[in-house]
Design a protein that fits this description.
This protein is an alpha/beta fold and 380 residues long. It contains 12 helices and 10 strands.
């Protein structure tokens, strides 16, 4: 996040959790790349195939929000001879659960999309064959949460944060909230919508952020105050961001009435990139004192039919071409040092210098208990 009810990157629940173009673009109707590939290069050796078409194919199993430029995946084919087939398998929690159920006889060769909130579930179930990807030394040390065993390879990071509708707060002549403490103040009563921590990874990440901020003894009291202050809870990111949040393109169409939403620090660039005409300023902002950092991983699936192709793909995922392609396709941050970020991503996205964090082993030990306590406190 090991219960099937947790749906990690549920930014769009069943249709696409981070849908189509990594979470946020889904809100604006951008379609995702279901599969891409090309021919070229010689037949790879050692892929376990017989020399037929399948021996040249490497299958990436992912949540619905995986997206990459066709040209970048064609570059992988050009460099390695392998064609990438992307198998989207529901939101991240659903996709992970499917792989657990088919352990040893996986749907593909590489799994992408498990994050630090659910990493222990994947590792405890022994889904992955250890592999140290080429170029791993260029990956930020803070993202290498399994560095001693190399069962997974870090691919991207993102910050779950409260977003706010700039127009609402300007019209009300009210400063937007900046911190967790602000959200329980009377002036922000009935303004926040968040996702269910049991069904959505932004919701779970926001819960973990409060655990990190207030400690194991203080987070429940905080949520009591947040509930008393009128927080609304919905099942998925898509519901929260597209239906309830007044600052998003979808929310404006739906005449949404909540000017605060739990989303991502990279949400504002999406609102700019896909708007017509493109605005000079993002219509949404980020409360940077409310953030929790996610790290997303990929791993070579145990029993993969094309192990050599899977290893080549893991190398490619942390290569500069793919890393540089992610910000405006999946709206996440590269994990490789010194990868140049697009101007639109840096200009309109928020930089979070000190996000909240919880150690993976602590999450593993307490996740289910925290979710159960949160559900009893907030939802029931």
């Amino acid at each position: 996040m090991s219960s099937t009810r947790i749906r990690p990157r549920t930014r769009t629940r069943t249709s696409t959790r981070r849908a189509a173009v990594g979470a946020l673009a889904a809100a604006l109707g951008v379609s995702a790349l279901a599969a891409c590939g090309g021919s070229g290069g010689s037949t790879p050796s050692g892929d376990g195939g017989s020399g037929g078409p399948e021996s040249r194919t490497v299958t990436l199993v992912s949540h619905d929000s995986f997206n990459a430029s066709p040209a970048v995946l064609k570059e992988f084919t050009k460099e390695t001879g392998y064609t990438v087939k992307v198998l989207k398998s529901g939101d991240a929690g659903e996709a992970l659960n499917k792989e657990i159920l088919t352990k040893g006889s996986p749907q593909g060769d590489v799994f992408f999309g498990v994050d630090n909130t659910l990493l222990s579930r994947a590792l405890d179930n022994g889904l992955f064959t250890p592999y140290k990807a080429k170029g791993l030394d260029r990956v930020e040390e803070s993202a290498r949460l399994d560095k001693d065993k190399n069962r997974v390879t870090p691919v991207d990071t993102g910050d779950i944060c409260v977003n706010y509708d700039k127009k609402y707060f300007a019209d009300k002549k009210l400063a937007p909230p900046r911190t967790f403490d602000d959200l329980i103040k009377p002036q922000y009563k009935n303004l926040l919508v968040t996702e269910n921590a049991a069904t959505s990874s932004p919701g779970l990440g926001f819960l973990l952020g409060t655990v990190a901020r207030y400690g194991d003894k203080g987070w429940q009291d905080y949520w009591k105050k947040l509930k008393d202050n009128g927080v609304q809870v919905v099942d998925s990111w898509e519901q929260a961001y597209n239906d309830s949040f007044s600052g998003s393109a979808g929310g404006r169409k739906a005449k949404a009435d909540r000017p605060l939403v739990v989303s991502y620090a990279s949400s504002p660039p999406v609102e700019v990139l896909y708007a017509e005409p493109r605005p000079e300023e993002a219509p949404t902002g980020v409360s940077t004192g409310t953030c929790f950092r996610q790290t997303e991983f990929a791993g070579l699936l145990g029993g993969a039919k094309n192990e050599a192709g899977g290893k080549a793909l893991l190398d490619f995922l942390i290569g500069e071409k793919f890393q540089a392609d992610m910000p405006l396709n999946m709206f996440v941050n590269p994990v490789v040092k010194d990868v140049a970020l697009p101007e639109l991503f840096t200009k309109f996205g928020a930089t979070v210098d000190t996000p909240e964090a919880v150690a993976p082993d602590t999450i593993a030990a307490h996740r289910e208990q925290w979710i159960q306590s949160w559900s009893s406190l907030v939802v029931k």
